[in-house]
Amino acid sequence: MPDARREDPLARLRTVLSDLGPVVVGFSGGADSAFLAWMAADVLGAELAPCTTAVSPSLAAGELAGCRSLAEAWGLAWSTVATDELDRVAYVANGPDRCAHCKASLLDALGPQAEALGGTVVLGVNLDDLGDHRPGQAAAAAAGARFPLVEAGFTKAMVRRASRELGLATWDKPAGACLASRIPYGVAVTVGALGSVQRAEAALRALGLRQLRVRHHGDVARVEVDPAELEQAFRLRAEVAGAVRAAGYAYVALDLDGFRSGSLNEVLA
Predict the structure, then answer these.
(1) pTM for this structure?
(2) pLDDT bucket at 135, cuts 50 / 70 / 90
(3) How far apart are CA 148 and CA 131, in angstroms?
(4) Residue 92 neighbours by CB distance under 10 Å
(5) Is 190 exposed, middle or buried, given 0-12, 13-18 or 19+ CB atoms closer than 10 A?
(6) 3 state DSSP class of 53
């Protein structure tokens, strides 16, 4: 019997997916979920590994278009489903457990698809995700979701490396997260705030900035960009300020610490 510790990571993942059988992939279009969707379709066949994108005001329009494009290019069995997180009082209240209510909404939407298929909902969680404040993972697992990338031992870097080796266009896609993650805990999640964040981030990407977040602090936007892009952002400060103000903010601040995934979780440390 081969030593599982020495087994190729892709081989481990293929085994995990094969053992799971039919799956419904929660497909956000990010590097992790895209890699999982491609692998699941490759192992099980597209019809036994459909991927579904949850659509709500917390999903940027550009991300939805990206999911559609990838699904078409890769021949995935793709669909969308509306989720109701903004109808959930606890989600809108935006406590530290907000993600748990979001994932509960997601699993409520994907669960019936998986049941009809006789399969399991799978999400693109990797080992690195386990170290941050992620109450949504516990909620998803409690609802029956599985995390094949974790089970196969994939870190974020391994996902990107494998994606590149497979020729997947998402291998270097900047890290993403739902728009609600830009709103500090305790500040209500509203369609208006989500829209301002979406417009501001889209405008900044149009200026050539790639890895970024616009953190919503009322009428102040705190802009995080990759440290390697700070000089570029400062050089374009007039354009950056104008673009963010046009999205609805009165004041624009450039965070000198740069982009950090989950920076609003720092208050919980």
Answers:
(1) 0.89
(2) confident
(3) 17
(4) 15
(5) middle
(6) strand
